[in-house]
Amino acid sequence: MIVTVKSQCSQREFDKLISWIKSLGLDTHLSQGANQTVIGLIGDTSKVDMELLQSLEMVEAVTRIQEPFKNANRKFHPQDSIIDVSGVKFGGKHFPIIAGPCSVESEAQVIAIAEAVKASGATLLRGGAFKPRTSPYAFQGMGVKGLDILRKAREITGLPIVTEIMSEKFIDDFQDVDLVQIGARNMQNFDLLKAVGRLGKPVLLKRGLANTIQEWLMSAEYIMSEGNDNIILCERGIRTFEPYTRNTLDLSAIPILKEKTHLPVIVDPSHASGLSRLVKPMSLASVGAGADGLIIEVHNNPAKALCDGAQSLRPEQFDDVVKAIDVMLPLVNKER
Ligand code: PEP
Ligand code: MN
After folding, report:
1. Cβ(206) to ligand 1 under 6 A?
2. Is the distance from the beta carbon of residue 158 to the nearest atom of ligand 1 less than 6 Å?
3. Are 122 and 99 in contact (CB under 8 A)?
4. How confident is the model at residue 36, as a pLDDT?
5. What is the spatial distance between Cα 284 and Cα 289, in angstroms, rounded to a whole number?
6. What was the pLDDT predicted at 33?
7. 1 pLDDT band (50/70/90 cuts)?
8. Are 306 and 103 in contact (CB under 8 A)?
9. Mean of the pLDDT values across residues 307-315?
10. pLDDT per residue over 188-240, tens digit each?
11. Measured CA distances, 333 to 87, 92, 282 (Å)
12. For ligand 1, is residue 132 a contact (CB within 6 Å)?
């Protein structure tokens, strides 16, 4: 971090500023020019309040040269992190596919879908028991009963389960969930992030509806700062002005994240587009952009789905998508 000090700053004020910086455990490097003085802050500047520094009368400008996310930063961890979710690996050469319904509706529905997606090559089962709905009158999910159904499906198929936590209140019910999902709407629910950090289970951290990549990485940082490094990021589209699709899939986030962080990055083409016919092209585009996996909504009767039917694939459509992905994977040096 670099602090540029105004030329009219008195020596007393300047000395005070230097001793305050040093009190934060940082070293300083001074560069005295004719019109201004530049202070280089050396050490871990992630805890420095940039806005506070900027607001000081004597300060002309503050420039951060080191990113505020430390644990997630690739500079401090050059190799890809490999996240193991009950035996299924994410990161590096691995390309797992998560599939299942938007929400858990019944035992028969989940088991039928789980068996179908497993036969096509999915290695994890998704399904929401707690659903974040825009309307309080829409189906809110089956809650803890839905978690029991997912466990049953895991027992029958052997597929590890991925499901969303919406409240810290239910943290104990997620102790045996293989991959705990933080949904887009909770990406900046900091108390929930800290709670899943302490829970210690692998976390699927979705990007917020209108959040920058850096804000997203700072949310990962919240989980990591509690000692949990098992995070998989999920790009699920962001809110833009375009109404033809539910969201806009930010494909460029994938290579940017691969530069900035060592954490695996997967894509959710279902929520990103909102349209089942876009799931295949967006899945293939994600493979091409360097994604580390996919999470796809599949329903055995999309027309009757209680949630997100329009973006859900039928099992045979999912099968076709997996076959197309398999053609592409060798081109990007990945394998399922
Ligand atoms: C979901 O995965 O069903 C979901 C609600 O996703 P998102 O949080 O990305 O909207
Ligand atoms: Mn959904």
Report:
1. yes
2. no
3. yes
4. 78
5. 9
6. 74
7. confident
8. yes
9. 98
10. 999 999 999 999 999 999 999 999 999 999 999 999 999 999 999 999 999 99
11. 21, 10, 19
12. yes
Q: How far apart are CA 307 and CA 267, in angstroms?
A: 20
CA of residue 102 to ligand 2 center, whole Å: 4
Structural contact between residues 143 and 130, judged by C-beta atoms closer than 8 angstroms = yes
Residue with tokens 């940017």: 256
- Res 8: pLDDT: 85
Minimum CA distance residue for ligand 1 atom 3: 102
Nearest bound ligand to CA 130?
1
Say which CATH topology domain 2-63 has: Alpha-Beta Plaits (3.30.70)
Q: How far is CA 270 from CA 54, 100, 153, in A?
A: 42, 11, 22
pLDDT at 76: 77
DSSP state of 40: E
- Strands (E) across the chain are located at 2-5, 27-32, 37-42, 59-63, 83-85, 88-90, 97-100, 124-126, 161-164, 179-182, 203-206, 231-235, 265-267, 294-297
Gap between the Cα atoms of 43 and 66, Å rounded: 10
145: helix, strand or coil: helix
Can you give the pLDDT at residue 38?
85
Q: Is 299 in the pocket of ligand 1 (CB under 6 A)?
A: no
Domain 83-332: give its CATH architecture: Alpha-Beta Barrel (3.20)
**pLDDT for 45:** 86
CA 19–ligand 1 middle distance (angstroms) = 47
- What pLDDT does 41 receive? 87
CA 292-298-299 angle, to 5 degrees, is 170
- Which pLDDT tens digit goes with each residue over 261-270? 999 999 999 9
* 226 close to 35: Cβ distance less than 8 angstroms: no
Ligand 1 near 236 CB (within 6 A) = yes
Residue with the two structure tokens 């700053």? 9
Mean pLDDT of the 108-119 span: 98
Which tokens is 192 given? 């929930």
Domain residue spans of the chain: 2-63, 83-332
Q: Which structure tokens are listed for 140?
A: 């809110």
